[in-house]
Amino acid sequence: MWKETIQIGFLLGVRQIRHASKWTTGLIIFIMMLTFLNLVAVSGILVGLIEGSVKAYSDQFTGDVFLSTLGGKKYIEKSTDMLATLDTIPGVAAYSARYTEGATIEANYRVRRDPQQLRDTVGTNLSGINPESEEALTHISKHLIEGEFLSPDDTNYIVLGSMLLEQYSPLGAQGDDAGFPTIKDVHVGSRVRVTVNGATKEYIVKGILKTKVDEISRRAFLPEKEFIRFAGRTNLNVNEVSIRATTLADAPKVKQALLDSGIGANALVRLSREGLPTFLLDMIKTFDLLGNGISSVGLLVSSITIFIVIFVNAITRRKYIGILKGIGIRAEAIEFSYVIQSLLYAVVGSGLALIVIYGLLVPFFDANPINFPFSDGILVAPLSGTMVKLAILVISTLIAGYIPAWMIIKKNTLDSILGR
Fold it and tell me: Which residue in 8, 29, 320, 362 has a CA-CA distance of 20 to 30 Å to 216?
């Protein structure tokens, strides 16, 4: 019985669709497409604001797996053995080991004649890196806005992050009062005096880096050989190692391999995302909820639209529905025919939206991130989440299509035929 009812309902639904106005059908499908785009894109862009920062943090600083010093330790002990182990772990595509020390950079010492005049200084994290390894891992040189990047054998040159310089600081000269001190009148070719661990040396600024990752834009960089000599390091123990996995899916395996090798006894081993501040993770969740809240308004509007369309369609065909009931067509079959119409609108509209999202929008925003002050925003649309939203849209559309059909069909058959 039910099989026959579904078959008849399906045939009636197909017949109604074939005889419906093409313009009306096209408009409804277009509305469904926009509704699904709204469901996915609004929350995707809001979450993408923060995910853009997370991606930049991984791409430019931590890599996929990040090793840092244990609490209470000055550096990662047995670093030489650790780096040798990294070369043997499958899934490690590249890594960069960094030495770090707190340092002070002074700018106006050559022109300061009055001993009472304040020294123009800024505190920073001085990093000793292998320029070639760092370039292979983070492509750091592409973030230069002035000058050139370091070469491994440089001994008199330094590269500065833009946040250390007054002309590039968002707060400008007011940065000192706000707790973000800077030095002024420093450009490529300027000389600065660097002090670390009681040692002082003059360096020439070779380049200036500007990124939206503070850990980079507030640092100063030296080649590792010059750093070790200048900072007076008596061993080759590093402070942090950023590791790039062959694929993102390999990152957890690389982390587990590091822990299995015993590296966890001397270093804190974390995936890039595990090192994010809690407030950043909370912001991602908040933006996702906000986006879903805004998108639900669009879902409500589309459901009402489907309700009105099906209701008008059913009420104008009330006589036809009465005749169908009079010749013995079951009410359930007629109701199912209207559900078929709703299903067509939802599936075709959503299908077109999926093509637009994954064929156009996601690749476009990956190649052209939105330039926000604190991040390069992308469109985040994970397939699993999109499928959940697709299911919600289809179910809500089916309900919105069934209710008006049920309201019309439950009327008395004779009244429907006579138009009363």
Answer: 362
**CB distance 124 to 220 below 8 Å:** yes
Each residue's pLDDT tens digit, 370-382: 887 777 878 888 8
Which DSSP string do the residues of 1-49 spell out, in sequence order?
A: -HHHHHHHHHHHHHHHHHHS-HHHHHHHHHHHHHHHHHHHHHHHHHHHH
Is the distance from CB of 213 to CB of 221 less than 8 angstroms?
no
pLDDT, tens digit (0-9, with 9 covering 90-100), for 82-115: 999 998 999 899 999 999 999 999 988 877 776 6
Query: Would you state the structure tokens that stand for residue 182, as one six-digit string?
Result: 């800077």
Residue 355 has pLDDT above 90, yes or no: yes
Q: Report d(CA 50, CA 319) in Å as an integer.
A: 56
The CA distance from 238 to 209, in Å, is 22
166 with 125: CB under 8 angstroms? Answer: no
Q: What is this structure's pTM?
A: 0.73
Amino acid of residue 302: S
CB 288 within 8 A of CB 47: yes
Q: What residues contact 112, with CB distance under 8 A and at least 6 apart?
A: 119, 120
Q: What is the DSSP letter of 61?
A: I
| CA distance to 179, 195, 198, per residue, from 123 (Å) | 11, 10, 14
Question: Residue 175: CA atoms inside 13 Å, Cβ hemisphere, count?
Answer: 20
Nearest C-alpha neighbor of 203 from the set 212, 194, 211: 194
- Residue in this structure with the two tokens 């770090």, named with its chain if needed: 100
For 187, other C-beta atoms within 10 Å of its C-beta total: 12
pLDDT tens for 49-77 read: 788 888 888 899 999 999 999 988 889 99
Read off the tokens for 104: 């002070």
